């Protein structure tokens, strides 16, 4: 029996072919992504409002900046961990694309629904008659 091949196999099996990740690492990665997204969204809303843009262009800018900042924060973190730029970009895209897309979809759907409700005198807008 070739022990060298067996030892290499044990090492690979020991790690399950994957890098181990703790809950702390996952929480930190999620925090980087969410922080970047929040900064991008707020900045997009501020810029769109300052330029007197309508809702749609402002939301498009906010979403684009959310992706940009979300990816950037993750990219910075994985580069600091020692990954080369090409690998870091692949990791950031793989790790964050679905997360950011779902978050943006839900967030902007809630914002649009809230604006629609307020525009029709529904939701919290009903209380304004009693203030």
**Percent helix among the residues?**
over 70%
Low-confidence runs:
1-17
- Largest beta-sheet details: none
Radius of gyration: 22 Å
Mean pLDDT: 80
Tally of DSSP helical segments:
4
DSSP summary, beta strand count: 0
Q: Quick one: overall form? A: elongated
Q: Which sequence of SSEs, written as H and E, runs from N to C?
A: HHHH
Transmembrane segments: 31-53, 59-78
Protein name: DUF4396 domain-containing protein
Organism: Streptomyces vulcanius
InterPro entries: DUF4396 (IPR025509)
In brief:
With 131 residues, this protein is mainly α. The chain is 77% helix and 0% strand. It is built from four helices and no strands.
Outline the secondary-structure elements.
Blueprint: H1 3-14, H2 23-50, H3 55-80, H4 85-119
Helix pairs in contact: 2-3, 3-4
Report on this structure.
The chain crosses the membrane at residues 31-53, 59-78. This is DUF4396 domain-containing protein. The protein is mostly helical. The chain has one domain (19-130). Helix content is 77%, strand content 0%. Helix 3 (55-80) runs antiparallel to helix 4. Mean pLDDT is 80; it is low at 1-17.
Main traits of this protein?
4 helices; disordered N terminus; mainly alpha; 131 residues
């Amino acid at each position: 029996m070739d022990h060298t091949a067996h030892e290499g196999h044990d090492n690979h099996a020991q790690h399950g072919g994957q890098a181990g990740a703790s809950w702390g690492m996952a929480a930190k990665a999620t925090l980087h992504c969410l922080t970047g997204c929040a900064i991008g969204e707020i900045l997009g809303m501020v810029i769109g409002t300052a330029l007197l843009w309508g809702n749609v262009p402002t939301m498009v800018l906010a979403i684009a900046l959310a992706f940009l900042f979300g990816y950037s924060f993750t990219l910075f973190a994985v580069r600091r961990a020692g990954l080369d730029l090409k690998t870091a970009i692949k990791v950031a895209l793989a790790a964050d694309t679905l997360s950011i897309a779902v978050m943006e979809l839900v967030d902007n759907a809630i914002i649009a629904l809230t604006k629609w409700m307020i525009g029709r005198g529904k939701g919290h807008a009903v209380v304004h008659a009693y203030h």
